[in-house]
Write a structure and sequence with these properties.
Blueprint (H helix, E strand, L loop, with lengths): L1 H21 L7 H15 L4 H20 L18
Helix pairs in contact: 1-2, 1-3, 2-3
């Protein structure tokens, strides 16, 4: 059940990120793009701290993939652009 909820939140957040890009609004800072996705997900329902952390990593992976046309080889590739540390 938790996976379904997390998947639903991820889909909503991704729709937010895609919407920003489709509407021509650009978010220059990748951390801001992830934060926008989190904010969009929070508008639909309450998110626990651990769900937010999981979603933040997922959104960073999606944004990285969109910009580089391939997923990161490891989570270390997300540092320092998306996170200071993991």
């Amino acid at each position: 059940m938790a996976r379904g909820i997390i998947s639903g939140v991820l889909v909503l957040a991704l729709v937010g990120v895609i919407g920003y890009r489709q509407l021509g609004a650009t978010i220059d800072n990748p951390r801001d793009a992830v934060a926008a996705g989190i904010d969009g997900a929070k508008k639909t329902r309450a998110i626990s701290g651990s769900e937010e952390q999981f979603l933040r990593v997922q959104l960073a992976i999606v944004d990285y993939t969109a910009k580089n046309l391939h997923p990161p080889d490891s989570l270390v590739d997300l540092i320092p652009v998306y996170f200071d540390t993991l």
